From TrEMBL:
Molecular function GO labels: ATP binding; histidine-tRNA ligase activity
Protein name: Histidine--tRNA ligase
Keywords: Aminoacyl-tRNA synthetase, ATP-binding, Cytoplasm, Ligase, Nucleotide-binding, Protein biosynthesis
Species this protein is from: Devosia insulae DS-56
Assembly and binders: Homodimer.
Length: 481
């Protein structure tokens, strides 16, 4: 008795996903619009590798004592640790520092690509996801920060989200000043206070007050431990949350300078506004911070109406490049979460998720005529039309047409013995056929009517001309000129 071959189960790793043609096409269209805005602002593209030396990512990893905590890491042949990039900003800092003498300064660039997090996956939380960043390195003024916010707003407009977003702006120097005024010096307590402020939109002032104190219990009974501030400390933070402006704060001056630029450029508070609740999580931010919040409501898993929330953000990070160079290097930038933004665009009907148009399929009805079918296919391709010759089991005509249907093909070309003798081909417009089929209930009637099918001269140029006139193919050709 022979042992059966042990088959490997085809399993997708948790936290990763396969992307299908419709999703890829839709996201490509979305990122093309984003890229157009960035380039209009004078930013150029750059691409950094997926792997960086772990020390390059540095203290911004969750735990540098364990190189594989939070990131996916491996050792090369020299036993140096390398990690899949955690974001697109740290690699940019390395690129800028390594090419410092070659690059124009300020250095204005954008990047799109996958980043990786070695974290527990969950609903909507992936270990691999795409970001789209833009950064200005080497400009210290409020002008660079304000420009980032304006570019974020223009990007949302270009994606059809006008009136459905707001860019919120704050400054970490303001927050640091408030913490100092409240006498909060413990790093863990500082983080707890910032997390509480970040919940202002969600829980209101009363909820923030609870999180600044002992803690807050939600409707389900779950308890979140608070920052443990005294009543006096809480009063200082709550005054800030309620809109009281801290005195003699450098961050306030920077925000005022940015606001003057927003006003001069015509960006009202409905598009960009100063908001004391904006915190941003990464510790490398040193000045202005900002995020894009989508303001329309969606239903959560409990069926409750909630605001969609943030799809991107960023800020000033003047210390990041300075890890590589002795002189200070100012920098500011932002990152868009591509997958989350794509989901938002689907909800608003601004992301086409239709299957991309497939190839015209040349059916193979006579194996001895393969060269002829290849000639037709090649002529279509030279005319810029997606086309392929069927290469599966050619014995069944119906299965060939079914294959074309599954590929979202606009048409099939049929040339059997009878058509060849007459110097003709049959073209079956699959899209028109599907539409006509909706009005024909009887299968026999459908077969007799052969909706969408017509005869064409067998000359190669005539075939190309007939296929090019099909509405779906004509639209494809126009879009790809």
């Amino acid at each position: 008795m022979t042992d059966k071959k042990k088959l490997i189960a085809p399993r997708l790793p948790r936290g990763f996903e396969d992307r299908l043609p419709a999703d890829i096409s839709a996201v490509n269209a979305m990122t093309a619009k984003i890229r157009a805005v960035y380039e209009r602002y004078g930013f150029d593209s750059v691409e950094t590798p997926l792997l960086e030396y772990t020390e390059t990512l540095g203290k911004f990893l969750p735990d540098t004592d364990r190189p594989n905590a939070g990131v996916f890491s491996l050792q090369d042949e020299d036993e140096q640790w390398m990690s899949l990039r955690y974001d697109l900003t740290a690699p940019l800092a390395r690129h800028f520092a390594e090419n410092f003498d070659k690059l124009a300064k300020p250095y204005r660039s954008y990047r799109a690509g996958y980043v990786f997090r070695n974290e527990k996956p969950g609903p909507g939380r992936f270990r691999q996801f795409m970001q789209f960043d833009a950064d200005t390195v080497g400009a210290a003024g409020a002008e660079a920060d304000a420009e980032m916010c304006m570019m974020m707003a223009d990007t949302m407009d270009a994606l059809g989200l006008a009136g459905k977003y707001v860019v919120k702006v704050n400054n970490r120097k303001v927050l640091d000043g408030v913490l100092a005024s409240a006498g909060v010096v413990d790093e863990g307590q500082k983080l707890a206070v910032l997390r509480a402020i970040d919940k202002l939109d969600k829980f209101g002032t009363e909820g923030v007050a609870l999180l600044l104190g002992e803690g807050r219990k939600d409707e389900s009974g779950d308890f979140t431990k608070g920052a443990g501030l005294s009543d006096e400390q809480r009063a200082v933070v709550l005054n800030y949350v309620r809109g009281e402006e801290p005195e003699h704060n450098e961050g306030i001056a920077e925000l005022n300078a940015m606001q003057a630029l927003f006003d001069a450029a015509g960006y009202g508070a409905d598009r960009i506004k100063i908001d004391p609740a904006v915190v941003r999580g990464l510790e490398y931010y040193t000045g202005p911070v900002f995020e894009i919040e989508l303001t329309f409501k969606v239903q959560n898993e409990k069926g409750q109406d909630v605001v969609f929330g943030a799809v991107g953000g960023g800020g000033r990070y003047d210390g990041l490049v300075s890890r590589f160079r002795s002189e200070p290097v100012p920098a500011t930038g932002f990152s868009i979460g591509v997958s989350r933004l794509a989901h938002a665009l689907r909800l608003t009907g601004n992301l086409g998720a239709e299957e991309p148009l497939g190839p015209v399929v040349v059916l193979v009805l006579d194996k001895e005529q393969t060269a002829r079918y290849q000639a037709i296919t090649s002529r279509l391709r030279r005319a810029g039309i997606r086309a392929e010759m069927f290469m599966g089991n050619t014995k069944n005509f119906g299965k060939q047409v079914a294959y074309a249907d599954k590929r979202n093909s606009p048409a099939v070309i049929i040339e059997g013995t009878q058509e060849r003798e007459l110097g003709k081909v049959q073209i079956k417009d699959l899209i028109a056929g599907k539409e006509a089929a909706k009005a024909i209930a009887d299968n026999a009637e459908y077969k007799a009517a052969r909706p969408g099918q017509f005869e064409c001269d067998g000359d190669l140029d005539a075939i190309v001309a007939a296929i090019s006139e099909l509405p779906a193919v004509s639209a494809y050709l126009d879009a790809n000129k």
